[in-house]
Design brief:
By secondary structure, the protein is an alpha/beta fold. It contains three helices and eight strands. It has helices spanning 13-24, 53-56, 78-85; strands spanning 5-10, 28-32, 35-39, 44-49, 70-74, 92-98, 104-109, 115-120. The strands form two sheets. A four-stranded mixed sheet has the order 1-4-3-2, with helices on one face. It is globular, with a radius of gyration of 16 Å. It starts with a strand and ends in a 15-residue tail after the last strand. The relative contact order is 0.17.
Length: 135
């Protein structure tokens, strides 16, 4: 089994796709006006409109109602990404912070209120990590 994607249901597909294209720098591939995907090397972020929900099970998902999932993206330099998103993202939950496990993390909400985490992994012993040089 392979984990391949997460799908966000939204009432405004174009708005949310535009937000994630700007935030991630990835371009979406549109299948219909109700469905688009942003593909990365590790997984795909699918964004679908409310009209797609009944195809699975009527009422099974509701837009802008997520209170338990954080969608995460690994980035090379979370501080640089934060500077690039300042003025675009309107709801930063946490500015770049070094977490107890060493990752540098930036937490914000997308236009539907979903939590998004951009993080730079902690350098492991002997590994300078992304964007870091060995002394």
């Amino acid at each position: 089994m392979d984990f391949v994607s997460i799908r966000i249901i939204t009432a405004d597909v174009a708005r949310l796709v535009g937000f994630y294209e700007r935030a991630t720098g990835a371009s979406a591939t549109w299948a219909t006006e109700d469905f688009a995907e942003l593909r990365t090397a590790g997984a795909t972020l699918a964004i679908a409109g409310t009209r797609t929900v009944p195809l699975f099970a009527p009422g099974a998902a509701r837009p802008a109602d997520n209170h338990s999932v954080i969608t995460e993206f690994r980035v090379d330099d979370v501080d640089r990404v934060y500077r690039n998103l300042t003025g675009f993202v309107t709801d930063f939950v946490n500015r770049p912070t070094t977490m107890p496990w060493g990752n540098r993390s930036l937490l914000f909400r997308d236009p539907d209120g979903n939590l998004v985490n951009f993080f730079t992994p902690a350098a492991r012993e002997g590994d300078p990590g992304p964007g870091r040089q060995r002394p």
